[in-house]
Amino acid sequence: MKKYPIMIVVSILLLVFTGCRTEVQEKQKVIDDREVEIMEDYGSESVEVDEKQFEEEIGSEINEIEEQHSEKKDEPLYILNDDHTVSPMNENIDERVVLLTIDDAPEHYSLEMARLLKEKEINAIFFVNGHFINNEKGREKLLEIYELGFTIGNHTLTHPNLKDLPEEKQREQIVQLNDMIEEIIGVRPRFFRAPFGVNTEISRKVVEEENMQWMNWTYGYDYFKEYMEKDPLVDIMVNTELLRPGANLLMHDRKWTLEALPGIIEGLEERGYGFVNPHTIK
After folding, report:
1. Which of 108-146 are b and which e, b meaning 16 or more Cβ less than 10 Å from the residue's Cβ?
2. pLDDT in tens, 256-270
3. Are 263 and 88 in contact (CB under 8 A)?
4. Which of 115, 118, 122 is nearest to 274 (CA)?
5. Section 215-220 average pLDDT
6. Are the CB atoms for 47 and 8 separated by under 8 Å?
7. Is the whole-model pTM more than 0.90?
8. Which of 82, 110, 111, 129 is the most exposed place for a label (fewest CB within 10 A)?
């Protein structure tokens, strides 16, 4: 038995905090409730604490929370192919689907896009640039997108052409952004997309070291001048000859893409396509 001021005892428990913000908040509630119980019994005076018993009592509740969150992971349903499309893992899984991806997040419109997609119960990968999360507003946007349930990808720190950089700078562009993202949302990205689709031997090596998967895309049009308006963009995204089951659709954080997004979704659905949840990609 050791005697500790009650606030020290409670603060020790902060060392067990891991996981996403929602999980941490649930753990904090366990500790807050326990703190209230002890304060009601002892006030601010020092108390005799059986460390082992105390850790076991709180630890069991913390473990239950961790197990609940681990069970929320989605079962793998699709695989990512060498041509950056996705395919179902067996014949019982719908193959007529597309994967939505949004680059250059979270600059101006990503959060609005995420909210729109959330309302329609459609998931997507938001590929993040580091220069958009180097301020509090950008970090808050990223956290909200993540907490809405979306997958966060790495799109490098500053969006350079990786082939123009020496090996160490390429590594920094990927690893440092992973560190930044993890600090904000609590997890490291699973997916990497190189700016301009230019992957190098070094970037592939770093991606593998970081336990990530890299992907380019099947098609995208919102960076061509003739498609920087809502209606032309909807039309080409829905009716292009490149659309096929498993297609990986590239979009960007742009005003016209936000405006076109409802029409793109509606048009794809009318053509019989559903949308892959990136969490189900193996």
Report:
1. ebbbebbeebeeeebbbbbbbbbebbeeeebbebbbebb
2. 999 999 999 999 999
3. no
4. 122
5. 99
6. no
7. no
8. 82
